[in-house]
């Protein structure tokens, strides 16, 4: 076959360092927009970004040439640098080293978008830790909880 053709959609979840509430109202939308620029610069598509003060959800489509690990390294490194340069009072801002990445069928994009949009309401009932462990269980990803939260 002469071409590589893919439809790779991911629901990616990652938190601030120690899950501190560092994503303030002032920062939130600008941070999502900045991450969207990174996605676009890597020839991906950002379908939805959301979360709460201590974590982010992204629904993205990535090109075949870009691994999820490389993508997250770019997003985390560049966005934290941008936060430090743009918001002087956010000098302590940092991302946790790990992340969760879950494949999404194109037919489920709308459902995942609604889930991400409803994050503030969802987290009135559920903690980030409970949510993340549920994702791991639902996707049958083996884990040792001693090492998830650093």
Structure report:
The protein has 5 helices and 4 strands. The radius of gyration is 15 Å and the shape is globular. Strand 2 (45-52) and strand 3 form a beta hairpin. It is 40% helix and 18% strand. Helix 1 packs across helix 2 (68-86). The protein starts with 8 loop residues before the first strand and ends in a 12-residue tail after the last helix. The mean pLDDT is 94. The protein has one domain (9-147): Transposase IS200-like (Alpha-Beta Plaits, 2-Layer Sandwich). With 150 residues, the protein is of the alpha+beta class. The chain has a 4-stranded antiparallel sheet with strand order 2-3-1-4, with helices on both faces.
């Amino acid at each position: 076959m002469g071409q590589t053709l893919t439809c790779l959609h991911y629901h990616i979840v990652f938190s601030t360092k120690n899950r501190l509430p560092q994503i303030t109202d002032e920062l939130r939308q600008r941070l999502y927009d900045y991450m969207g620029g990174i996605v676009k610069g890597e020839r991906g598509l950002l379908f939805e970004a959301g979360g709460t003060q201590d974590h982010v959800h992204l629904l993205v489509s990535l090109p075949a040439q870009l691994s999820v690990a490389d993508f997250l390294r770019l997003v985390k490194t560049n966005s934290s640098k941008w936060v430090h340069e743009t918001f002087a009072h956010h000098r302590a801002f940092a991302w946790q080293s790990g992340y969760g990445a879950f494949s999404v069928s194109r037919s489920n994009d709308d459902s995942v978008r609604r889930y991400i949009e409803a994050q503030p309401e969802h987290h009135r009932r559920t903690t980030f830790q409970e949510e993340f462990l549920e994702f791991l269980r639902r996707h049958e990803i083996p884990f040792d909880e001693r090492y998830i939260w650093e």
